[in-house]
Amino acid sequence: MTSISPLHVVIAGGGIAALEATMAVRDLAEDRVRITLVAPERDFELKALRTAEPFAADHVRRYPLADIAERFGAELRRGGLARVDAERRRIVLGDGSELGYDVLIVAVGARPRAAYDRVITFGADARTEILSGLLADLDEGYTRSVAFVVPPGVSWPLPAYEIALQTARQVWGMGIDGVELHLVTPESSPLALFGQEPSAAVASLLDKAHISFHGDAYAEVGHGRIALHPGDEELAVERVVALPVLDGPRVAGLPATEDGFIQTDDLGRARGFADVYVAGDCGDFPVKQGGIACQQADAIAEQIAARAGAPVVPQPFRPVLRGKLLTGKGERFLHNAIRGGAGDGRSADFSLWFPPTKVSGKYLSQWLPRLTEARVADEPEAEMEIEVPLPSGWVAGRQAMALDPYSPLR
Predict the structure, then answer these.
(1) Is 242 left (phi over 0), alpha (psi -120 to 50) or beta?
(2) To pair with 400 at 20 to 30 A between CA atoms, which of 38, 93, 122, 315?
(3) pLDDT tens by residue, 100-122
(4) What are the chain's domains?
């Protein structure tokens, strides 16, 4: 009797794309694969909720990667990806050690950096309290004008809108008058990538919050002023809150763009490499968003499962944008199928997908709320004993899929 060894799938990264890939590969391929998750971090952090923390609207949740790996039958190895030796099918970690693979998924994310000096750069690191001083200055009347800036370059603009809208809500809610708020962005209209209807809805939110929108603008930030290019418009502001610019990870051994993002083909593989796939912000797909990263991971998992012998027909990656915008007065759900180009899109103050999570992933969205509930129910000192079934068994989610045309489960 011939024994066939399971396909060894190595997943490099500890973020959204890496975990979605881990869950999807395990669910689709079952015991046909052996999974090793390689990550330098101890915990997974849902970074999309960082914009909620300064305003006490929500908090960032962290989950031990060791628990996640155990639940989905993966081995966890601590370390960062330094180099890919595709010829030998091995990766080299930061400490010089090596690990072999049959198939590799690179999901190491992008590298945020500050675009300007002497401004508040929100999202460059895990600190969310950096806005506290600004909010206090607004409250006490020391600051009367603020600009929220999306810098030119690779970035995801939605957090700038969330911070601006929540700041406005706090300022006007405290009865403070005479404060000028601006939002500066290279986008032609507010969150234009979501399409016409969502963009118009966000424009209305900005207008009602008394936030001046400056689109098609590339900001040059100086002391006490912002020069807007093209043109000669200037804004005189006392404080600036900017998003970071994203740089690619420049993984040695893999093809990269000028900005360091890994070049990929139509199947999500590193260009020229049959056994190396790329998911999430580290790849050259221009939209850097958690939901898109999940969709990339799911498409890759289908290809790997089919390769491992599972009865799966791989479907191409067809990106659909789902954005949950925190407004300071509830939430706004934005949806657009961008695979055919930016269309009309859809906007609503009720959920357009199930479950209505901040990051919409076929597996991650279903699983994280269950783990959160289990963690809250446990005593802080108690050892975690959590039974988390694989997503394929969730009847409720499958029923919702049939009812909700916008569900990521479709």
Answers:
(1) beta
(2) 315
(3) 999 999 999 999 999 999 899 99
(4) 7-110+248-403 (3.50.50.60), 113-245 (3.50.50.60)
